Amino acid sequence: MDRFVGRARLEWWANGSTCLGMYDIDITVTVDAVGGWRGTGRHVEALDTTEREGWDFLMEMDPLFSLAFPGEDRGGIVVRIVEAEDGVLTFTEGLDGEGSVNVTFDLT
Hints:
Blueprint: E1 3-15, E2 18-31, E3 37-43, H1 49-61, E4 64-68, E5 77-83, E6 89-93
Antiparallel strand pairs: 1-2, 1-4, 2-3, 3-6, 4-5, 5-6
């Protein structure tokens, strides 16, 4: 397969058991002759104000998301997301554990 066009889900995991956000996206992924890949996409539906605030918060903390394809319960590919002003999302491969932020939440 050298191209996938369809729907996928971006997941932002705080740790192995806590997902802080899930976003459905329409995605196009292409793979070149040496196995390198590139992806672009858009949110399936425009984010409402609350969703946008959550998305912006997660992107500011660390733009690494897990990418889940149809039929997957949980994302297995870690991707770094860059969002253009027109809403186009560009994906590059991120390394698992690459996150640059260590945050502790006090829930008491």
